[in-house]
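**Polypeptide and fold**
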Amino acid sequence: MARPFTKTTLSGAVERLRPGMKVLLPPGCGEPRALVGEICRQADRLRDLTLLHGVHLGDYPFARPETAALRVATWHMSPRLDDGRRRGRVQFVPIRYFDLLTEFVAGGAWAPDCVLVHCAPPDARGWLSLGVSVSVSLPAARRAPLVIAQVNPRMPRTRGNAWLHASQIDVRVDVDEPLYEYPAPVVRDTERAIGRAVAGVIPDGATVQVGVGAIPQAVLEALGDHRDLGLHSLLVDAGVTLVERGVVTNAKRLHPGRMDIAEVMGTRRVVDFVHDNGAVNMEPATLTHDPEVVARLDRFVAVNSALEVDLTGQVTAESLGMRQVAGIGGQFDFALGASRSRGGVSVIALPSTGGREGAASRIVRHLAAGSAVTTPRFVADCVVTEHGVARLRGRGERERAAALIAVAHPRVREELERSLTSS
């Protein structure tokens, strides 16, 4: 049954919401800032409404004490949510990205009562592109009881599987506002050395997946001499540079000539690049994060980061002991897919030290007590620090421990070796 696509004001749109509802937001640069701001203004009326979200690039207005009537359920924790979590208003959902598409849609444990989408204006046939963010919000919106669209002329019209028709949307609010931006991170000498080492693992003709942060930025910057690469899942400004330099040609078996992207995160540069660009094929996470789809991409290289790696190859990318600081994301999805790809490699890249003045080793005998395992040891492949590459696939306990000690900071190697003999 067709929906009315009724044009209204911000306050009128949010008045469609009721206390206790679950409302899904697009993550990253796709978040509809104006709609979220209006929800915060009506927070007292909307008591116990739960906002469902992932990566957030703003200042978390929905988790402040003044909006304490609202609840938050997130699959990507941030230290800036700790206060709300202590107050019992923020809950972390430990879920890998691919499973969001079963649990955060109709029929799932976190089925939303409403999905907010952020769209480019409709074309002559009534189709609206969700622009920079389709990973979770698009499939959820297609099955949600209520869909509210923020229509923004600054949102690019992206191609591929990025569309909702006007007849699939209940309420429309026209708001001209800048998108959230994700500026390029600062890359220092340590990240640059890691980037060069990771680039050495990536063959010509590979399809590359990277996350966000300084190390992924350094990896992309180090790929300038490669040929015929593809990009997968996430597109940032540095990826545009590789396209413009002819490094990225997307010469791959699945959708040749196009990159399959679920999220675009960057500045106006990447937003302008993806507008009506036939080389950018937007796809929900049902495709981009499906390990079976990833496995069909020869030489798939997944590049992800970590907080600690222990000497068995267990990886945590999300918690410091019992403290949840990030999320599971797509790391396991891509590591599993890469393990099944012909010529595929899964890379975990991290500095050898962390903490205040680099005092703590991030290659450890055991993960800190209570740490969540993001990638288990049986999927561990390559671990890269500024000191080199540890290749773990197929190696026994002693061999992998020795390989990891070799890429730890030199000042802790002897201590790590002693810990092996004393255990």
Summary: Residues 189-422 form a domain with the Glutaconate Coenzyme A-transferase fold (CATH 3.40.1080.20).
